[in-house]
Amino acid sequence: MVEANPIKFYVARYFFLVLCLMQWLVASIILFTYPSTLKNQYSALLFFTLGAVLFVVFLIIKEKVKRVAVGKKKLVVITPGRKQKVEWDEVKSLEIVPFFNLYRLKLKGRKKGIYFFPSRNVNPAYGLLGGDTSKMGEILKKLNAN
């Protein structure tokens, strides 16, 4: 079973949460340390609103990005507390998402797709679209061709 780097997964999953918390920290610093003027209140409101938008983006991404281990006979979707084994017959589509260095997996019977990272960086072809040259990419190409 080939699995992507967990550091890349956690960075991608929690990046927007960290940005959100930083925006809220800046808003609270503006509110509590500077004098209460209209300009400072608008600035704090702007940072708080930006943090709220980033928090919504985090909630959306958190549900879609998963850790996936790929083998020749099955996929394993790793979620906190359990591992869901998926046979290749249940896969509806599997494609690489251009520009984002990740895969989109759609399963039969599910509306939502699962996004996961390859085991290594995708090498760009002519600077635009990429192809996965890692061990995971080789397995996925063979199975996607069948």
In short:
By secondary structure, the chain is an alpha+beta fold. It has helices spanning 6-33, 38-64, 135-145; strands spanning 2-3, 67-70, 74-79, 82-87, 91-97, 102-107, 114-116, 123-125, 129-131.
Describe this structure in words.
The protein is an alpha+beta fold and 146 residues long. It has 2 domains: 2-64; 67-145, PH-domain like. 45% of the residues lie in helices and 27% in strands. It is built from 3 helices and 9 strands. It has a 4-stranded antiparallel beta sheet. The chain has a 3-stranded antiparallel beta sheet with strand order 5-6-7, with no helix packed on it. Strands 8-9 form a two-stranded antiparallel sheet. Helix 1 runs antiparallel to helix 2 (38-64). The protein is elongated. The model is unreliable at 125-129 (pLDDT under 50).
How many domains? The number is 2
Low-confidence regions: 125-129
Q: What portion of the residues fall into strands of 2 or more residues?
A: 25-35%
Question: What distance lies between the first and last C-alpha atoms, to the nearest angstrom?
Answer: 19 Å
What string gives the helices and strands in order? EHHEEEEEEEEH
Helix content: 40-55%
- CATH topology label of the largest domain: PH-domain like
Annotate the secondary structure layout.
Layout lengths: L1 E2 L2 H28 L4 H27 L2 E4 L3 E6 L2 E6 L3 E7 L4 E6 L6 E3 L6 E3 L3 E3 L3 H11 L1
Antiparallel strand pairs: 1-2, 2-3, 3-4, 5-6, 6-7, 8-9
Could you name the key traits of this structure?
4-stranded antiparallel β-sheet; 45% helix; PH-domain like; 3 helices; single chain; 146 residues
